[in-house]
Amino acid sequence: MGNWSDLQGGAIIRINSAYNALLPTEQQIADYILQNKEVISSGNIQELAENIGTSKASVTRFCQRLGYKGFKDFKVAFIRDLGIDLPDVHEGITKDDNIKTIVEKICRSNSQASLETVRILSPEELAKAVSVIVKAKRVYIFAEGPVAAVGIDLYHKLLRIGISCSFLQDRRMQSIQAALTDENDVVIALSYSGASKGIVKVLQLAKENNARTIVITNNIGSPVTEVAELVLYGSTNIRSTITGTIEPRTSQLCVVDSLFMAIISLDGDQVMESLKKTNKVVVDDWIK
Q1: What domain range is 257 assigned to?
Q2: Rounded to two decimals, what is the model's pTM?
Q3: Are residues 229 and 212 in contact, defined by beta-carbon separation less than 8 angstroms?
Q4: The domain that contains 35 carries what CATH number?
Q5: What is the block-wise mean pLDDT of the chain (288 residues), using blocks of 10 residues?
Q6: 2 in a domain, yes or no?
Q7: CATH classification at residue 188
């Protein structure tokens, strides 16, 4: 289960990832901080509360929601973020942008999503997920909507290295599969928002059957994190425009690739033998 006190990453990344799970007052604090970064680095909690029109207690609770002991710890992490060379490139597409500019903006946003994932994905949680997966009798992968593309990629990778797994997009079929899991199975659920009713349901069904549960999501404190045993976070961007899935998809693919390579690293010889066999199948299918 996701524990806010164990979060990885800097203050700014935590704000973006936790934003949708924050209370309205906390979102107001987050908005002010993101829009007035220089004020935060030089001010104190009293000044911040007065500028926002809230109380010191609310600011303290906001910092604690992000996994910090209080405003002082949050401020130190925030100032450290400002010193890291990660420029704000979460740019929206405008009607004045030409094709070249659009390509540049999208590529910069995806690059930053990858860099931010490094800072929020917990190596400890990833290692636990790897251990659980390699010991499983069968792995069930559940995803729906736009994140299904990431689920298919994960399914393909695990299948290539000889892990018995399945992937279904239909919500009812997912629930049926989850209802039939047992303690030897692992369920991996993917959700950008972490609030999909269908994904929460399959995690609950699997948990009732004592199956191990892993979720890959982009939102800290979202409903899926309260159900799953292990949570792998990707970065997110609360200012993302159009579909809101561009950066989160890139980030989740980074998580999936990291999971895949970590499994290969842990279970080398057997995995490489499976890869050799499946590579032959793939190459034989090419048009010569």
Answers
A1: 119-284
A2: 0.79
A3: yes
A4: 1.10.10.10
A5: 57 84 91 85 87 94 90 87 56 81 86 86 95 96 95 97 94 96 98 94 98 94 94 78 75 96 86 90 89
A6: no
A7: 3.40.50.10490
